[in-house]
Amino acid sequence: MDCAVTKNESKTSAALLDDYQRTASQFDECHTETGALRPHYARFVNSLAQVGPSELSRRWDNARRLVQEQGITYNVYGDVRGMERPWELDPMPFLIAADEWWTIEAGLIQRATLINRVLADCYGPQELIRSGWLPPGLVFAQPEFQRPCHGLKPKQGKFLVFYAADMARSPDGRWWVTSDRTQIPTGAGYALANRLVTSRILPEAFRDCQVQRVAGFFQEVQKTLAQLAPLPSENPRVVLLTPGPYNETYFEQAYLARYLGYQMVEGQDLTVRDDRVFLKTLAGLEPVDVILRRLDDEFCDPLELRNDSILGVPGLVEVARAGNIFIANLPGSSLLQSPAFMAFLPGLCRHVLGEELQIPSAATWWCGQKSAEDYVLENLDGLYVKPAFNQRLMSKVVEKDLSRAERAALVRRIKFQPHQFVAQEWVKLSTAPALDGNRFMPRPVTLRVYLVATENGYAVMPGGLSRVAPRADTSLVSMQRGGSSKDTWVLSDEPVEVFTLLSAGSQSVELRRVGNNLPSRLADNFFWLGRYVERADAAARLLRSTLRRFTPERGGSPLPHLAPLLETLEAQGQMAHSLRSSLSQSQSQGAGQRPSMSWKTPEALEAELLAAIFAPDQDGSLRHSIGHLQRLAMFVRDRTSNDLWRAANQLDDLLTDALPEKFLLAADALGVLNQTLLGLASFNGLARENMTRAQGWRFIDMGVRLERAFGLCRFLNCALPSPEADNPSLLEAVLEVADSTLTYRSRYNLLPNIAAVYDLVLLDEKNPRSLIFQIRQLEKHFQRLPQEHLSVTLQQKILRDCSSRLNLLEPRELLERHQAWASGDTGRVIADMLRDLPRLSDALAVSYFAHSEISRTGGGYQP
Amino acid sequence: MTYHLIHRTIYEYASPVTVSHHAARVQPRELPYQQVDRFSLRVDPLPSVSQPRIDFFGNHVCGFSIQAIHQRLEITATSRVRVAATPPPASALSPDWESVVALFSDPVSPAVVEPYQFVFDSPLLRRSPELADYARQSFVPASPLLLAVTDLNKRLFSDFKFDPVATTVATPLEEVLEKRRGVCQDFAHLAVASLRSLGLPARYVSGYLRTHPPAGQPRLVGADASHAWFSVFCPGFGWVDFDPTNNLLPAEEHLTVAFGRDFSDVSPVSGVITGGGAHAVNVSVDVEPLS
């Protein structure tokens, strides 16, 4: 393969990077100063050349689609709608030669070891401060120094289990560390996602280049966390503690949790009892041994770590003190994340490890030292000044090119509190080819490398997250500021061992069995997911039936049997109240006569119907329901398949892309409704078929059943009082809305008859859409739920009442009631149902979802 | 002087609390001039877990949690404390304040690390040029530190009006400075933040104050309250306490419970409850002089 490069191929490969002009002042990863290809890129470029440009461009498109379909996203705070941004992936991987990697690996292991030792000292004896190796202000002035965590003794002295270093290459070719991530090194999951996509679109190059696999790293993670469980346990429970779906890296957290096989939990899913941490599940409390935390230090424990919000687990620090939980990383580990520490690492390394620091840090001056402060004030223009602490509030980065006034203000602030500032050299980043349109352009890159503690030291992920700046002249790279990322290929000198934690194809297939340990919060979300799926389905059906009967040509007088449909739409909040009055007016006065303020032209009615489908902000519109569905699907995403998530996104796209302006005619909207119904059917199918019949599925199904029963009753409650209740066209609509048309035709060879139709949709136990069928299913579900709660009897009682009322009902009574249909038994039963079903939903919530709010109490006001 | 102290905190919750976690800092510290002869903490309902420990600042803290469903919680701390009369410091002989600021400027000797940590911002207190300006009127050049602080203490007493309704625990310092009203907690916070704004180490002290009934009237049991004042570090003198609410230097009528960077480090009782709804809290303190 190496020597098999023909002249032709090398020409093509040259063509691929033809336009590529490296920047003279920067180090280029791919080309030397003379423009020659660096040796470790040779195989890769040859391999690409054989694929050919047109095939490559097809694959790039595939890559984008893969990212979208896998739902790889990045949340952007403060962006309410469209909060999820698709992950930007540059298809061209970042290549690192084997020998260079060894240097990086050894240097970072040394750095992690050092940081762990410094953390242990800061949260322990503090000898480094007393002996003058660490300026006391660097620790004591930092809000990140969590005093309640002082004295904690994590098992095996592992304060720093996870660590990542942000690295950049300077123009002389050396690697530098630009920042240390010691609290929650994010992005390893994105690195994994990038790998899955890139290796799939470039399988030949991936194979030819002998790329080292990253899966082994995640296996180390599993091994480490399992053996850090503080109490002896056969099968220690590790959970990933997330701040929730609004966190910027929620996708990654869900992705990692699934890949590693850990349950993803929020603070409210955990509780502290008897000095231990427990997971609240439907079946009761289950002990937790290890917490992989994605929640910031200060949010971990609202009792001891200062915080007004209630994201964490009250009492957690005390459990850690008692040695009954392992938290990775230890709360308070963000202390070492301050860039100010970088100024002291070389000295600390000599003192603590007796070695020279192998990989240098970006030149850093902490103004807490007088000499550094003087230097920074003298060289302000050539430096990058930023807050030394409070990285979370770092939104205000001091940029180049300050105005005179800004500069003076900065000097004043530095002089007043010098220890709060740190200055760094502007790091000139190296460039690598990145796709810009159809061309490869040199773009600045940084590399984040991940480490995990092992029994004897640290293991490094051979790879990492390469990030690409959007413009050639940017010197800071951050996804929040709109950059892209690359897969990182660490090359090997020898063939690599193939190994993956994912069984083949499993990322697109299904759920693990969840048994009884479903957290109550998730049960709640599943239940509402079921309700919204059905709500959207019912709304789409109802709107479709309405639109089918809506013919503007009639000159504005809708058929009377349209009224119940419109009333139901109104009852569901999908249409405005004024509509019914306009309708009754049109009925009583006929078309065109005495138009009044409330008169709705057919055009206005049509516009309202379209709004009921497409309006994003209108409560109860179909799009609104789909939005809820999508949000709930996001909340349960770590428990469901990617397919399900994809189906939810497609549904949302369907209505978002179909802007109402495009639909001049209501008839056009019918197409969208049909597609939506298909999409919902596939969502439903996936939810039912792909989820093991464990609690998650059960709660979705209960949601669907309850919503369906309620929706049906609400519609019948509007249809039955109509003077046209026995009109075959309205009965046809009843069958459509109840999705029972075919069943009806298979049973009765006649026009819809009121008694037969109501019997079919209310009482036919064989009809999966009938009311009684929903009640029977609910009864079955309730029998299988864990029953240690008192109010279960209330739910069963409500269901029993519903069931016995239906058992006594005889719809033939309707045949005898001319025009007064609603006043009979059938009408009464429907009305009773409308009252009881919401009570059933409430009772369920009390028994299974009741996650009482936690709150802080004071009592110390000092007058 | 020996005192019998009772500090009782009662919570009443609108709805049942299923589980609660608390931290109580109500046990007086041992100090060179203060001995604690007896201390007991009673919690009702009985906690399922209770763990006394010493916090980062050396204060006694008792962490406890209650797992029985309850709607009322009563925490009673009882202690017997002896306080020795301390003679007023020879303030005129204290070092000039600029030399103390210099002592706590880089490079700081590891020997003064302990007071040094009280120079910086803390959760509730931010240093500011405005606070430094306010303090500077008392800090004339070359003035002995303790005389300057005595003057600041006096100004806080005369510039600010004691007003229990003007502020809450959450009122920011800027607002107190602007309104010129507040309670002991606010005055102690103001003093601490002003001193820090000049570069001096200062800490917040939480405790009790013996109260004297008006002449001819009996002492009312339980009518006392928890109190707060501040302390400044002075080389050669150590930590010296000042009470801006009463414009005095604590002698044998102040009983120290805990100290820290600000109120948030020493809050007497804090908790996180699950359930409970709205809650009412009732605190009573009784400082009874025995001899």
Can you characterise this structure?
The complex is a heterodimer of chains A (863) and B (291). By secondary structure, chain A is α+β, with helices and mostly antiparallel strands. Chain A folds into three domains: 91-334 and 448-461 and 488-508, no CATH class; 363-425, Dna Ligase, domain 1 (2-Layer Sandwich); 522-849, no CATH class. In chain A, the strands form five sheets. In chain A, strands 3, 4, 5, 16, 17, 18, 19 and 20 form an eight-stranded mixed beta sheet that branches. In chain A, helix 3 packs antiparallel against helix 7 (188-201), helix 19 (622-635) runs antiparallel to helix 20 and helix 20 runs antiparallel to helix 21 (666-690). Mean pLDDT of chain A is 83; it is low at 1-14, 77-82, 503-515 and 578-599. By secondary structure, chain B is an alpha+beta fold. Chain B folds into two domains: 2-84 and 267-289, Immunoglobulin-like (Sandwich); 91-263, C8orf32 fold, CATH 3.10.620.30. Helices cover 21% and strands 38% of the residues of chain B. Chain B is built from seven helices and 13 strands. In chain B, strands 1, 2, 3, 4, 5, 12 and 13 form a seven-stranded antiparallel beta sheet that branches. Chain B has a four-stranded antiparallel beta sheet with strand order 10-9-8-11. In chain B, strands 6-7 form a two-stranded parallel ribbon. In chain B, strand 9 (226-234) and strand 10 (238-242) form a beta hairpin. In chain B, helix 3 packs across helix 6 (184-198) and helix 4 runs antiparallel to helix 6 (184-198). Chain B is globular and about 60 Å long. Chain B starts with a strand and ends with a strand.
Give the tags.
A: 863 residues, alpha+beta, Dna Ligase, domain 1, 28 helices, 44% helix, B: 291 residues, Immunoglobulin-like, 7-stranded antiparallel beta sheet, 4-stranded antiparallel beta sheet, 38% strand
Outline type of chain B: globular
Number of helices of chain B: 7
Low-confidence stretches of chain B: none
What's the end-to-end separation of chain A, in Å? Answer: 83 Å
Strand content of chain A: 5-15%
Corresponding CATH architecture of the largest domain in chain B: Roll
CATH class of the largest domain in chain B: Alpha Beta
Poorly predicted ranges of chain A: 1-14, 77-82, 503-515, 578-599
Q: What is the β-strand count of chain A?
A: 21
Radius of gyration of chain B: 20 Å
> Considering DSSP H and I runs of 4 or more, what fraction of the residues of chain A is helical?
40-55%
Radius of gyration of chain A using CA atoms only: 32 Å
Tell me, what's the shape of chain A?
A: elongated
Helix and strand sequence of chain B: EEEEEHHHHEHEHEEEEHEE
| CATH fold topology of the largest domain in chain B | C8orf32 fold
Major beta sheet of chain B, specifics? Answer: 7 strands, antiparallel
Structural class of chain B: alpha+beta
Q: What is the tally of helical segments of chain A? A: 28
Characterize the biggest β-sheet of chain A: 8 strands, mixed
Instruction: Classify the helix fraction of chain B into a percent range.
Output: 10-25%
